[in-house]
Specification:
Among the domains are: 91 residues, Leucine-rich Repeat Variant (Alpha Horseshoe); 82 residues, no CATH class. Helix content is 68%, strand content 0%. The chain is built from 40 helices and no strands.
Length: 671
Amino acid sequence: MKQTLAILAALAVALALPLQAADMSQLIADTAKYESGQSVEPLRKFEQLLRDCAEKPELRAELEGAMIKLLAPDATFEARRFACQQLAVIGTDASLPALAGLLKNEETVGIACLALGVHPSAKANGMLRDALASARGRARLQIVTTLGNRRDAEAVKPLSEMACDTDALAASAAILALGKIASEPACKTIAALRKEAKPAVARVVADASLRIAEKLAADGDNKGATTICEELFQPSQPANVRRGAFGALLRLDKDGGEERILTAIHGSDALLKPVAIAAIGSLKSRGAAKKFAVELPKLQPCEQVFMIEALAGHSDDAARSAIRAQVSSTDAAVRRAAIVAVGRQESASVVPLLVKAMKGDKSPEELQDIEAALVGLHGGAATDKALVAELETSPADAKARLFTVLSRRGAHVAVPALLEEASSADTATAQAAFQAIGKLAAADDLPAVLERLVGVRAADARSDAESAAARAMQKITDPAQRTELIMARMAKCSNTEGRCSLLSLLPNAGDTKALDTLKKAGADNDPAIREAAIRALAAWPNATVWDPLMTVCRKSDSTTLRALALRGLTRMAGEMNAKPDAALIERYRQLMGVARNADDVKVVLAPLAGVAHPDALPLVFPLLSNPGVRAEAELAVRKIAAAIKAQNPEAARAALQRLQPPPKTQKPAKK
């Protein structure tokens, strides 16, 4: 134990030591050769060391030195880019000379700017300005952008000269940089450019001007910022510039822009109305929503949509009332906007309003909006009860939609009302009710669900009723309890349809008593009961019903019962294919023995083709000579051979040879 502790202590000391010089040199050499697509292991080692710098400051200078070495011309571009990325984090003035060399090369100026963009020393600014004097093309643009990002006030003079360049790209880069710097000289240059109004740079001048206005506002000079924005707001400016200036003016106004918004809404400038209306959503004054809610009915439909979305950001009664009023608008787009907003804001009180909105000639999309709004309403159980109350007076189509809403809300409180609706003679109503019951019913609701199942009035809704009962059964964990509930209801049921439905549920119980009940029902005098029992046995969850179903296949005179039993047996056999053994092969042999015609054989061949066992092949070979099933038999042979060829190559090869046509015999030549 002591020896182990000593080894661990020595290892900890070794890990704490700085990287040896030889190891660092090798790591630099490996990284310097890095090309895209090669192993990134050297880069990852450096990244780990860089992460360790926070806890080992003495390592920082050593790593910066390594990154400087990676900037050498003989290093790959990828290695130098990696080094610049790291120097952006740990670089000091020590790295500036090496980065200055990169600024002279158009290929590397971009990665140098990556490192210099956030360099903490003001010396980087001077180095960038020096490089700008001789830079050309793309390198020039990248240096200008970096100077702007660094807010270098001393760069204003060369940038101002460049802003008048005949090269629109260079001028635009310089103008944007001046807008970021936003010093007094930079502001004067941009102001002069606004007056010149050169079309080639008009957009970037406006953008730079807005940046300057934001900077002035942030520094408390609202008057200066407003002056710039008013200038940009003139009708002669491009549409996007005017919109940007208008938005800035709203933020600069002492009242948050309320009066300016109101003026725009009452005005005729269609360009500004959407911007003005959208700004209403962010107004903070207490009476803002009420002030603008009264404007909603006066607007054009497209503007009303914008206003509804803006008012939805306010939670006061005035905004809600104005939006609710538009749920009955004559314009579909306005109605839909109001419906969506109501669904986000409201609770139980608007249920009657939204249900009423379902009536009339509505598009499928609008009806979906109403459903979604009802589903999204706040209020929990209170809203659920309000929805249930609407069922009493709603027409059939609206009821079906309410059933869907209740199920999507998970409203268990609706189950009693849904059970009442499930007894409707209207097929659509009963089907929708049972579908909702299947999602909402709890274990305690199963007796009531079974009651509705046996007494279903809409014949076409019976399968939905059976599905609902099956889903409710799954919420009871004890199989014996499931069986007892079904048997208790069956004891009181005298109609054949109801008894058949109850029998169909017994596989969901799956216990011995349920199985015995189905076996007994399989010999019932009533043909419908017998068929329901065999159908349920065929759906049994395991192979314990193999023998009873095999007896049906061998002895029954009913084509229907035989078909049901055979399909149930082949399903079970197919589920056993994952573990093929002698017992499974024997089951397939039995199935082939009870197949009475080509259709039966095809039913058996379908799962048999999935048996990955060589003993399955002899069951298929005799069928190759049967024209009625030869195609299916050939397919089965190919699938089985493909599945066994890895473990039984000879058997697979021999099987495939059987599929080859016999060689043609050559006829003797005529004399």
